Each structure stands twice: as structure tokens, then as C-alpha cells.
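quick one before i forget lol
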Amino acid sequence: MNRLRIQSSSGKKYLPIYLVMAVMLAIFLIFQHDFTKYGFSSLCNQICMLSIVTFAEMLIILMGGIDMSVGPLTAMLNCFAAANMGRFIALSGGNVLVGCILTALATMLIGCLCGLLNGVMVVYGKLQPIIVSIATGSVFSGLAVIFLPQPGGTVERGYAKFLAGRWFGLLPGSLVLMAVCIVCIWIPLRRSRWGHAIYAIGGSENSAFLSGINVERIKLQTYVLSGFLVSIAGLYLTAQASSGDPNGCADLATKAITASVIGGTALSGGEGSYAGAYPGAMILSLILGILIFLKISSFFQNLSQGVLLIAVLGFTAMRKMQQEQALQRGKAV
């Protein structure tokens, strides 16, 4: 019975976010008059990469950190895949399928290693996550330019259609990819000891350590998982753009943080869920899409993103203050 109440309370918590998402979607549909099955695919493609990167960012925020390197890492992996897909196909004797699989595996491996690098510097270097990620983000940006000095690269058409096209002529591949991330990664993680440990570390690292959680190991594993998710986003971006661009993800980290906060993830750690982060990413994507429909300049698009983040943070701080005041009144009584 108690578990049922907790689940019900959690569902009510994210209800306002989904209501806002529904309103934004309705406004978006008003502007996009020709919203056919192609429009639905376009919407899913627009949201997919941001939602996966938001997932990766949210995992670090849940532990009380901030990762500013998710954008540069996505760009680097995108450039690596676009620059080397042709080489992997040639290496496999011209077999396109094997070459694409080798490209994906190599990209995922690099993503995991980059996540591990961030984790090692945070865990064993005892450095602040935001400082580490700014430094490694600069390295990743430099490597992206080395892999692909200018936008371009070679991306197989079949690979692009598989991830960014429509399956059986109807189902967007991007929607399938998001569903796989939820069903195969988030749900098992959330129900596992690993997932519970992530929340415990974000709530209080000392308490988590005293309760027997191997904090260092959990942090390293989570940074690796975050890097793996970013690699999926990079591979998807490669399919969607059919090319690589070293400067294509300049503000992606800010967008991922904003989407996480909109979705109810606390920057202090220990509170949040992909159930909120996904609609947060969708709301942000829809807002930017609506501004594009209105032909508003990119400057004001960035301005609206910053104002939205400040507003959400202000609302969160106000709500926390009200909760603390209510708690104090309860103790006084």
C-alpha cells in the first residue's frame, strides 16, 4: 500500500510537466499546418538527440554534479563516426553492414572511455565535476576538429535511414531509439541497486558511504554510462545530419541542463527522473521550434532558453523555501 502511494505521488509530481508539454505541442501543431506522418517523424527526430543527452546529463546531476562536456563529446563522436565510417567499411572488405557496426562499436567505446576519464578525474582527482567537464570539453572540441576540420564526412544512406528514417514506412527510428533508452536502460537502472545508489549519493554522499555503498565505484560506473548515452546521441546525430560538424553542438550541454531542470531534476542532486527529463527535453525543443516558425532570430532563441532556465530555478527555489517553512512550522507545533 505504501509503495502504491509513493508511485501515485510521483505520478502527480510530473503531471504539470506533461500538461505544459501538451500545451506546447498544441501550439506547435497550430504553426505546423502540414503535420502529417512526415511531420511526426520530424518532431521525433528533433527531440531524440536532446532527450538522450538530457538522460546522460541527468545521471550526473542526480549525483550532485554538472557535466558541461556532453555537448563537445557529442560533436566529437559525431565527427569521429562521420570521418571514419568509410574507413571501417573498407576495413571490412566493403561490407556496409559490418562497417557500420564497427563504426558504432568504436564510437560507443570512445564515449565510454571519455566518460571514464571524467569519472576518474572527479573520483580520484577530487576535482569539482563542472571544472573537470569544462576542461575535458575543451579537449573533446579540439579532437572533433582534428577528426573533421570542416563539416562533412561519409555516412552511408542505409545507416541514416535506419536511425533517422521511418521503419516500415510509418514508425520513426528516432522514436524507437528513445523507447529503447527508456525500456532497456532507464527502467532497469532505476529499479536496480545501482540506480538507488545514484540517488543516495546525490542525497548525501557521506550517508551513502556510511550505509555501505561503494561511492567511488558507483560514480565511475555512472560516468561511463553517461558517456555511453552520449555516444548513442552522437551516432544518431551522424545519421540525422548525414555528416559531421565539429561546431554543431555548441550549446547542447546548456540545453540538456535546462531540460533536466524543467523536468524536475534538482541541481543539488538526489531528485529527478527520466519521466520528467524527457518531457523537459520535448518542451524545450518545442519552444525552440515555435520560435523558428515565428522567424525569431537565434539570439532571442538563446535568450528565451536562459530566461526559461532562470524562471524554473526561481520557481524551484521558492518551492523549496515554502517546504522548509512548512517543516519549521510543523516542528514548532
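fyi Residues 1-9 have pLDDT under 50 and may be disordered.
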